[in-house]
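Lecture 7 notes: from sequence to structure.
We start with the chain below.
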Amino acid sequence: MRISVIGCGNMGGAIAAALADAGWEVSVYDKAAEKAEELASSCEGISILSSPDGASGSNAVILAVKPQVLPSLYCALREIETGLWVSIAAGVPLSVLEDHIGSGNVVRFMPNIAAKAKKSVTAIAVSDEVSAENRELALAIATSFGSAYFLPESLFPAFIGISGSGIACFFEMMHQMAMAGVKEGIPYPEALAIVRDTALSAGVLQRSTGSNAIELETKVCSAAGTTIEGVKALQDGGFASAVMNAVHASAEKSIELENKARYGER
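Predicted structure tokens for the same chain:
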């Protein structure tokens, strides 16, 4: 089965590499030929296309270019024959893609930057015309570089808030906790490593137990102990409101970008 990836930037390159590692036949194209060449030289199983037209005949074509670049490609994309289109362009709705590509077999992915480590969390939205077989193909592609969740497109802004953009909030939290460790006497590199491993341990524990996050939190909080003091300090500092406001701000920006794409603004 052949997958073509148009765009070899950070995300497109990570996806292409993950697919190749998983044994897929992968071909790539990038306007900057050196990017495609560098990717192909670093990964076995990746071939280079000289133009977007070369993607014709692929089982799926992944559009991994920036949203503002897509309009310049629409004419060329309409000439490509493929069973499934997959777009990772943020803020470009399915309806816009369908109109400009001339196909109803369109899927949107919203991955996050952890695709580089094959740990992306990806939302998948599908057009009405996408068959069950192509839904499975989309899921197989997405899970080659992490976990994936089918969501209605209307929930993409919320997903962006808690994952696509939300991952940056985790990085900010990690940095601030590490800096707090520095204040208490632990050098930053060691503090950051400890915070990182603690974040990983929290995720693994929640996944393995299936427990509600608040249930796990209360298990750590002993009466009159150290943990409840830290949790109280977070709440006193407006932690809950800050997190909700951050998610809402990212979601609102996503809605703004989608509205601009629908009405031809960029």
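Points to note: Residues 164-256 form a domain with the ProC C-terminal domain-like fold fold (CATH 1.10.3730.10). The chain has eleven helices and eight strands.
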